[in-house]
What does this fold into?
Amino acid sequence: MSDIMTAKELCLWYGSSQALKNVSISIPEKSITALIGPSGCGKSTFLKTLNRMNDLIPEVKITGEVSYKGVNIFDSSVDVCELRREVGMVFQKPNPFPMSIYDNIAYGPRTHGVKSKAKLDEIVERALRDAAIWDEVKDRLKKNALGLSGGQQQRLCIARALAAEPQVLLMDEPTSALDPISTSRIEELALQLKEKYTIIIVTHNMQQAVRISDNTAFFLLGELVEFGETEKLFSQPKEKRTEDYITGRFG
Amino acid sequence: MLKGKLSGKRKAYITAMRTAMLVSTVLTAALVLFLVIYVLIKGIPNISWELISTKPSYLSDKIGILPDIMNTVYIVLATLVIVLPLGAGAAVYLTEYAKNKKLVGMIEYAAETLSGIPSIIYGLVGMLFFCQFLNMETSLLAGALTLVIMNLPTVMRTTQESLKTVPQSYRDGAFGLGAGKWRVIRTVVLPGCVDGIITGCILSVGRILGESAALLFTAGFAHALNGIIDGLTSPGATLTVALYVYAKEQGEFGVAFAIAAILMILTLLINLSATLVGRYFAKRRNV
Ligand SMILES: Nc1ncnc2c1ncn2[C@@H]1O[C@H](COP(=O)(O)OP(=O)(O)O)[C@@H](O)[C@H]1O
Ligand SMILES: [Mg+2]
It folds into this structure.
């Protein structure tokens, strides 16, 4: 399998405090990569670097390189909007817009110039089906999305991201605000989605990483300590620090 | 222990405080009620269809306030048309675009100060700047522009406050889908703060209706009936200015009270609509 995103010696500073230190990693496409590590170790920061959401924070300084399909995403010729369309994001807290379910899903395609009603209808239905929420909302597409339950809202946000037709889906602890049933639905969903998409998921929950991911990256204090096949990383970690973490000795 | 009796002194103190608060509540309510009822009783009998549908005539010695009503409408419209985009635009720039937070703080402080200045000073400056320096002479437009300066801080501040209530997560969501800055503002941020803009708008209308000092020097006191274009370029009195003129210069207290009653009713309607708009948006937000 080829790699779709690669980071090389990536460093990131918030003002004067360094949040990422020399991170180098290659993410294989059409697979699930889990990012684990104690809180504050830079998982979200790393994830947000991949679609340049960090650009929105003032005083962020970045060195090193991240390439997507062979193109350095920090290159001045890169269209950030296009990058974010191809590298979509699902946030920790479900954040549907205060508009109808339909308009939420159509937001991405409309942003990227799709105007035809028929085309939008088709995209909306496909995205909602892909996110396994179509049956629950098909009769209330015109209703406000804020009326959905937390778990439904998160699947709606996944559908919203899918509607922009991304290649990569970044998920930042997408289940941490959800109940166990919604959590397992989203895990199943992630497993289905990896047929078509590359998923990078931050998780606090190590069982979750084991259940769904193909590869796992362990971060500590801004460093990528170990990266490899999930099964191997959890059964025979190479690094002492990884072993300490996965056996619950800290964090 | 917990049920220990209050000492006599403490009891007397509590009773005294309660009574004092009750008395001040009753006094306040009575005062407001008296004022409203007094104005309505004195004013409503003087309101006639003829009064509000004609212009004054010296030949037949009749008074009509239609020109003043129209002038009020023109000045409200002209002021809003200018102040809303300007104030909301400034607010969007300051909260969403401006990088220099220190400068933003200074501008906010200046705006706050500006909204506390007595309106007669705006009138004076308006007269010197718009009427004389820009050669607009005494006209509704000069009055409207003066009111724009007066209301700009209000519109800007209310819009800013409501921009700040739009959750960051909406912006993140939209940026994350590849929307550009302006699209994010237009589709996600501004719709979330319409209520703030409307509140600013309603507050401004209330202030415009109540304003006399800033308009006396700038818009003048003519009672000519004009269309909106001619109206804006010629001098004219709004209802509040007309009230002042009729009461103070012509001793027409009947007409003055009629206008007062009309203004009072308008103010009540405006406050009511402000409440309704607020409720409407609060409801829409929580569906
Ligand atoms: N916007 C920010 N400004 C300054 N420091 C930040 C910001 N976001 C995160 N940090 C810091 O960067 C470090 C990594 O944070 P984060 O990536 O959120 O960790 P994680 O997601 O692994 O919990 C933390 O020390 C955090 O305090
Ligand atoms: Mg995080």
